[in-house]
């Protein structure tokens, strides 16, 4: 491609509302243009990267035996009513009426449509396993679209749906997709991690997320460098930090802690480690036609509540935080010095696994400005319900028992999920098994955020000058920057020759023949993030040399003109093989 | 591809609501599945054909220098308000509100979005010409979606938009697109015709449609076999059928024609040719705050009114047919025996070009059961306004003066259009010209109905057994049908060898290893429309032969096994080169 025939739309400044690096750089590099909140056009340079991502995804999906189809963006409400999601989904499901007042949605996902296809097309166990995928436009009416393509409203996804005759089949289909995802993100050239999205101890169908590791990621990922354990902090199992409970050594005692409502302040005042204090968190669950149930959750002073885990506990689905009025009614005191001992009305106590193994701890006295020290289970208060209700922290033991947890930030770019029979049962997608008996199909679903990958790749690879694309998804692999293409015959001739050599070698090369000054040329291509560059100038040509520079290199390398194409090709090949 | 790993979803019967052949066959061949009225999923076999169409379109667009980008399906109302189309468009523009009550549309086309991109990205004449295209999902809320993918609501289009600094540039951009379209439809293997969509005599910007010729087409195309003239009948210029007006020979006379309101009946009663009679058509145009203007349009008895042409005449934009009450008020008689002579109130008379050169003709007398014969211009009624207001008919002289018109039916699959500055002026898309003066960009737009091409190709190529795909867009180029793949080792071995040979030759081959009976196999692939087939069986193999059969052949050809791959490859190559 020659730049004069292409469209370069770099900008000096990013709009002020671009919050994250990838958003700013994609706008400045002329990859995207905003059409409305969370809705973008992909300009030619941006679309080239998208097409490369799509090609890799398509190749690996086909290799894994998945079959491409294409479902519509606009879906009838009836299908969503059948699955029950018409009611379950919130306002991010974009609903509208057509000219005949029939209700439709713009699909944020396609479980309903694909299940409808399956129930009509799959009659027998002999037709399975089958895995349908598409690369398609989705719409999710985010309340606050932001971060450019990372949390947009209209976006491109690859979504796949597997249909199996039994759970064993699903496991195999799931494994194939998992392996394909590993190949996809490896080929794209991203540092990524597959993490458990769902805690095994709490149950539920298996589900894993693929995260691109980046300091600016939205999600906290717990992982163990000594093993392959990795899980979203939302889901990572927290083990008790004490193997067993020590015997009580202190007597229980009420202590004045005036103005010290927080655990940190109490520990400082009493001169004890924060790890001896207990945080009481008051939740409520509503009971129809009766007063709510009030829960007291106990966490070690330095630990944080994990609301996802709490929501999965028996009786706590749909919990809310208790109101101040409820706290006064149940504890006889306003929030601040609460504890499990001597409540005014009975509450349900749930202790975190770590708290359950503590002795001689400190809790609020249910009286303003007082705490109780030397509290012990069994002696001072009954044995509690025990559950994993906290977030893991760096240094915690890994749940697989093979080392300590570390935490990094990640951007979710893929998700594999064992759906089971949820949709096939709701929508009557059955097949005849070996005995001629109808059975619900066993489903899995597998998503990759195609447009999101661009943002994630940039968050992981940029510097102050711009984007640094992994070779596999760079809009161009290499740029040729001639110094005086219009003025110097030898520069033009050698540049054209190099361009022809690289093109013939199957390398995606762009020749900057726009006649811009070197500074403008370099700045544009560094901003756009082309990973390799060769500068051709009269001075170098006199010595038979050109200047090669990788996007991360601090200095150029002089390369003999007749070896330049091979040199660059080898650099690109090596990078792609990484 | 092996059929056991693919998904064949052929059906015995098409749903009753499928009206046209292509719709029935696409459903029966398992290419599409209906999701809602005018909304389809493309199953794997259907998507393969779509992808082949897309690849050809993309290749030729790139070759013509157009740059691919991707605009969103969801577009903000503001852009449509700027262009004025928010008000102009009818209910086929799907409008909705997002969760914040902002108004959006699902785009049926992208002039507004691309003009918004251009006005922000193009600053100087040096950045033009540029032509942006996309292959993307559109939505048009048709009141009566039908004919499967031919008149769907959600569909895939290639749309391109060129930006030039002046009209000469637009001509050149337009010519490039026209040439690309000719290559695209030629490569796809369709019999097509480029037709004028807009009559040159009436004016307006240049616009041409590409029609696939098919008996079931929705449009009538007038063309001249002796020249390259072709135009939509809506737009084809009708010349006067008489070079000049003959001198009057009859006296004007009122004649009883009881019960003969129609021209045919009058001609029969009076024993004169239908060509001597005149049809009077009464139209009205409304005037604000005043009574409407009533128009009497005169056509030869055997001619039909062309409403598109009429709508472009001065004063007749937005015309309607007059009501019965208006006819009684202006003509003093109910509809049936109307004519230009002796109206009750003055009407504006427009005569078709042919009528203007007639003598001694017959018109209604504005009295029930009476006609007036021997009517002549100038003598019996004033010289009329003359205009081209009729449809051309077979046998008419071609407007280019080089032969006679014939008429065929076509399916519109492409459209090229010189927009000029309509959108750039409405939306302020200006650039600085050579003198630093702001000028509106000069635009063209160019569409191809990607999904529609599938339907059109089938309407042109089918028989009672199913589809007959042109090789370039067939889901597979050739199918191997082994007789007893599971039972006969030699059949399996030779089939596998042939499969490998064809695959290596770059041929898109499917091997039917499903173990179906021959009848089922043949029926499936004939329905799906794979254009070439090789049958491998033990009987033939004994003689070292296999059976080749083209989809249009009535008999198979015996081919030596070792030449079979080459034989088939040559057939496919020859077909693609056609």
From TrEMBL, chains A, B:
Span of the signal peptide: none
UniProt GO BP: prolyl-tRNA aminoacylation
Enzyme class at the top of the EC tree: ligase
Coiled-coil regions listed: none
Top-level taxon in the UniProt lineage: Bacteria
Alphabetized CDD domains for the sequence: ProRS-INS, ProRS_anticodon_short, ProRS_core_prok
Record EC number: 6.1.1.15
Compartments it resides in: Cytoplasm
Domain observations: Consists of three domains: the N-terminal catalytic domain, the editing domain and the C-terminal anticodon-binding domain.
Protein name per the record: Proline--tRNA ligase
Protein encoded by which gene: proS
